[in-house]
Structure formats: C-alpha cells, structure tokens
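Exercise 7. Given the components listed, write out the predicted structure of the assembled complex. Treat all entries as one system.
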Amino acid sequence: MEPTASLGEQLYLLVSLFDPFCGPVGVLNLLPDGSLLSCGDTGWGDEVARGFFVTITLALCTLPIGLLIGLFLALAKQTEVRTLRMAANIYTTIFRGLPELLTIFMIYFGLQIAVRETAMALGFERGFEINSFVAGTIALSLVFSAYASEVLSSAFKAIPKGQYEAGYALGLRPGKTMRLIILPQLVRIALPGLGNLWMILIKDTALISVIGLGDTLRQTGIAAKVTKEAFFFYGTACLLFLALAMASSIVFSRIELRVRRSGVNR
Amino acid sequence: MSAVQEIIPPQPAPPPEPFRWTPMRILGASLLGIWIIAGIALVLWLVGAWDIDKVKTYGPKFLSGLATTLTLVGISIVLGAIVSIPLAFGRMSSNKIISSLAYGYVYFFRGTPLLAQLFLIYYGFGTFRTELEAIGLWVFFRDAWNCALFAFTLNTAAYQAEILRGAIESVPRGQHEGAAALGLTPFQTFHQIVLPQAMIVALRPYGNEIILMIKGSAIVAIVTVFDLMGETRRAYSRTFDFQTYIWAAVFYLLIVETLRNIWEKLEQRLTRHLKR
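Answer.
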C-alpha cells in the first residue's frame, strides 16, 4: 500500500475516534443490532454519518472563500470608480439571478469541458475527471459571495462617514482604517445577515448530491433505494439538516453575544 | 477678542480633479473589460453554434418547460398564500400549543432543503403506498408534478407565514388602539386598518419569495418533471451541447430580472404616499 493512503487511513481512524455517530462513544451504537441506522455492515448508520460529514465539510470549505470574494465585491461596490461598481454589480446580478442548481451544473459540466479542451490543447491524451466536491465548492462560493456582497455592502452603508474621517484624522492609512475601525463594526452589523446566508448555504449543499457528491442526501438516498424505506431515510436526512440548522443558530447567537460585548451600548 | 471684520467673498468651486489612471480605475476597467469580452464571446459563440435543427427540435420544448415552471410556481405561490394565513395566525396565537405547532411547521420547512422535502414526499410517500391507496390519495402522489406542487406549496407556505407574521406585527399598536377607539370591530380593524399597512411592508419580501421559488423550482427536474431545467437537462443529455445550459441561464435571468423590475415599479407606485 502507498504511504499516503495509509496516512490518510490513520487520519481517518483518528477522526473516527471522535465520531459522534459511529465512534467509540457514538450514539448510533446504542441501537440494537440489525436496525436500519446501526453502524457497520448491517445498518446504514456509518454511511449516513459519512455523508453528514461531507455536508459539513463542504459548507465549511465554501464559507471562507465566499466571504472573501463577497468582501471584495462589497468593497468594489463602495468605491467611487464606476467601472468597478458596474463589474461587481454584473457579477451579483448573474449569480443571484441564476438558480443554484443551474450554476452547479454549469460549473460542473463547463469545467469538465474546459479542462478537457485545455488538456487536449496541451497534448494530453486522456481527460481528467472534475471532482464534484471541488465543482460544488466553486459553484456554492459563487452564489454565496453574490449574496454576501449585498449583505456586506448594506452593512458598509450603515457605517457613518465620520468613522472613516476619524480614522484619517488620526493619521491612519486607508488600509489600516478599514482593518482597525471599519471591519470590527462591519462584522457586528452584518452578522445576522451572514447567519441567514450560512443557513441558506447549508441547505444549498444538498443540491451538490445531484452531481454525485456523497453528501447527506445522496447517502440517505442510496440507503432508501436499497432498503425500500424511503420515508425513514429521507426523514433522517431532513432531521440531520434540522440538527445542523439548530446547532448553527446556537453557535451564531453565541458569536453575536461575544461580538456585541465589545460594542457601544446605545 | 476680535470679531470677524469682513466676510470672506464667495469663491468659485475648486476645479474638478484631472482624470488619472489610478490603480483602482485600471482594475475596474479591466474587470469590466473582462465582462464585456466574455459577453461578446458568448454572443458570438451562440451565433456560431446556432443550429436551426436543434432550435426546431428543442425550442418549443424549452418554451413548454418555461410554461411548466411558471405554472408550477404560480399555483404553489397562490396555494401557499392560502395555507400561510392560518399558519401566521397560529404563530401569533397566545395559545401555547397552537403557536408551538405552527412554529414547528415553519421551523421544519425553513430549516431543511427543499430538495430533501421533495424527496421525502415523492419517494418517501411511496413507503405508504397501500395506506394511500386505501384512502384514494395514491393517484395524487404517484405523479411527480403533483408531488412537486405539494412540496412547493408546503414550503412556500412556511416562508409566507413568516413574512405575513412579520408584516402584521410591524403595524404599531397605536393603530389597533385607534381603531378600537373609533368603535371598529376586530375584523374591520384587521381588514381596513392593519392589513393594508402590513401588505406594504410585506411587498418586498413577497417579491423575493416569488423569485426564490422560481429559482428553487429548478430542482423538480431531478424528480422527472420537465420544467425549464428538466428540458435543458434532457436536451443536454441528447446533444452534449453546452449552449443548452447557456440558453436556460438566459431564460432564468430574464424571468428573474423582469420580475424584479416589475416589483420595484410596483413598490414605488404603492409606496408613493410614504415618500417625503
């Protein structure tokens, strides 16, 4: 066996120690043997749990990329340069107007075609497979950043001009004013909107199952087809998404409390 | 202490700054240039790839898919609006049981992906086939279109209930009190005083919800309903021609942008008495 594979396996073993579903202290181990969601070869617990982790990983990979692009778009919408504003607005219009599913298909198939053409132009014989995880991350980042830029740019508008002027009066350069004065306030204003976008992002990850990524919905779908217990497994998928939504709303209210602590009480 | 002796005479405005190519301007121009070049390339490619046979074969199908999308969204929005009324009042009810039931419904349908809900109804209800046959509902749930309509109605009802509740609760209490002081009955108060004000608040979220539904309706293609997306996938699977997706994107963008503009005009017209 290759050393990288064994390393990956070791890593997987390490992670599975903390697996809340099928690990040593997993909840699904409490189920009697032979039930639909038990772990191991008899039930579908471990497959569904793996899909659940893929869903979380996908959302967590998309978030920073989307936020970063969204921040740059919001900054572009803030500038006095008209061409920059127009370029950012075109981006937002396109990716907010297209159905998420269509964006995903276009990125997935479009990337495949583009990579194949490039590979052929460079003289490679065989084509390359586009990883559905990568395609999904790109597509979701595009959509997320378009929405995030709107949230962030309305948060920018809520910050009074005097804050910038105060920063300049103190002798800070524009970059430092942005980092030290504007961004901390921006986070506070934009956080509820970004929390909503995160919830939407979690729900949108389910669409990536369509291009073959083994996420929650796809894994439960396979289980449903094999066992003919469709209602049970799709219900499980819904409950898993609900659990994720609840967990994120708890985390977000914690963050909001923490961020508000440093704000002025008005 | 010396007071100002003479007033500074008015001066002309300083001359506008001369145009310079700042780094930001260069960035903006190049990014806009990329968009323009991409747009021109796209149009040229679509013109070059124009194939009258394909247009004749798939053009009418695209239009029928478009009609399917619009019908599906239209009916489910209207049905969802009807379902959302009792839901919204349930949410606002002071009865703990009713309000928590309504909250549970709204939380479930807003917290899970529409695709999972659709699968739960289309594939999941198949589990109860014998029971559904016994009460004669299987005929309804056998058809993917009906399932999609059902799922969309339930989903949009949850969102619309929240919109409606937020709008009704945004009407200040003084309005209720004023109506009560005038001797209006509760129904008159709601119908004549609260609802007109609430609807203006709800106008923009309703427009967003319709747009979200049009975009969200693309997923019915996965359960074999041939809407715009379904027709696109079918055409792509037969021709392997990427322009099918481009055309679908153009159609969707056109619908969404048209709707957005109509809604903006509508809002401007309906809120013109609020302008100061």
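Discussion: Chain B has a mean pLDDT of 91. The domain at 54-274 of chain B is CATH 1.10.3720.10 (MetI-like fold).
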